Structure formats: structure tokens, C-alpha cells
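Z., the sequence and structure:
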Amino acid sequence: MKKIALFSLIAISAIFAFMLVLNPQTVIGSKKPVPAGPGTALPDSVLKFVQKTCMDCHADDGNFMAKGKVNFSNWDAYTAEKQMDKAKAICKALTKSDMPPSKWRKNNPTNVPTQAEIDMVCRWANSLQK
């Protein structure tokens, strides 16, 4: 009888542990960053920046070469790893002034990213995790 009770307790514990591993839930109020992944939309502040500064080229109807690097029209479909890699590359390109290109900057002087906007995008990029 004791063996059956002990076996039942172990089995129930194992099932409970298995359920937790397969179905992790974020605790409400958790301070952990939101994981990137399919369906993870750009935050509103980043989306506004992207629409103003990037989507002329990096969208479905944009430049073929540019949208090959990153296509914001398909952002939600990227895997968590791809979103994280692209976000970090975006931060790096903005920081080094590689993006937007100088010709675009010359033709769109009012939309050139400010240092505050670049910092905001980099904070977002660095907050992503797998």
C-alpha cells in the first residue's frame, strides 16, 4: 500500500513538472524582458521610428536589396533568434550611421534619426532575448 501511494505521488509530481516545462507562463508583473518570436510585434515607439525612417526601403514594396536584409512587413514571421539578430544589426547600423544611407538622409533631412531615437532602438534591441 505504501509503495502504491509513493509511486502515485512521484507520478503526479512528474506530470506536474512536465506540464510546467512544456507550458511556461510569464508571471504577471514579471520584470523579465518579453521574449522575441513569431508574432512578437514591434513596440509602438520602435514601430513609429521604423515607419518614419526605414520602411521606404525595408518593406514589401521597398528596395529589393534592402528588404532582403530586413523586411519590416514580415517582422512578426521572423523566429525569435532572427528577430534578435536583426534588431542588434539595426542598432549597430544606426549607431555607426550606416543606416539610413547618406543619399536618403540628404533627401529626408527631417526624418534623420536623432541620437535619442537611436538610443531607444538600441535599448529595445538589447532587451530582446531568445
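The helical segments are 2-22, 44-53, 64-69, 80-95, 102-107, 115-127. The chain has a mean pLDDT of 80.

Let me know what you think.
H.
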